[in-house]
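call fold(seq) -> tokens
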Amino acid sequence: MAVTLLIPALDEAKALPALVTHVAALDPQPAEVLLVDGGSGDETVAIARDAGWRVMTAQRGRARQINAGVEAARSELVCVLHADTEPPRDIVAEVERMLADPEVALGGFTTILRGPDGARRFTSFHNRIKTWYAPLLLRPHLYAKGVRLLFGDHAMHFRRADYLAAGGCDPGTPVMEEADLCIRMARFGRVRLNPRRIYTSDRRVAEWGELKANWIYFKVGIMWAFGARARLAQHYPDIR
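ret:
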């Protein structure tokens, strides 16, 4: 089964060169790397094109960009990467292995937040257990059916056909669109977290501090759960 690596991006020229290097080292290689740009004002598009990636533009917003990318993807399987992510070298094989199980509709990797000073162990641990306690507290009826709440830095992967049939990400949800997707995909199977690690930049934690960052993550999750979705972006600003 072929895999498309889908990268929704906006002004990621600082982070993208490292990802280009990591993707070039993947074994096996993906069938395609598709960057969906949301209107960058920096060199994001030029860097992606120089790397030989396929590039398209879409209306700004992660949900809209992911939806457009999945619609345009040429592969049966899709894995969504953050621009500031360091994927495992065998990510393509791991995506294929996970989705070879017909009971799995949606998969993700275990995220470790890491920066120049090393791993953010507390926040990384919180992010992991949050995939369990968040649905248990907020959507217990779905938790019993195997739904876990995954997020963008988990490198979520799925079958393109299932994603399209589920209606994709909600474009009206500016943050937590991946959590919505987990619920939408529940009709096709279980959501599972791969114990294999994937590394993502700790830039939000570095900007906000660890306690504030975890409070923001928790607050945004509660707001999402109780329907205050239009205001989420006010509490979760972009950090570049």
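The first strand starts at residue 3 and ends at 9.
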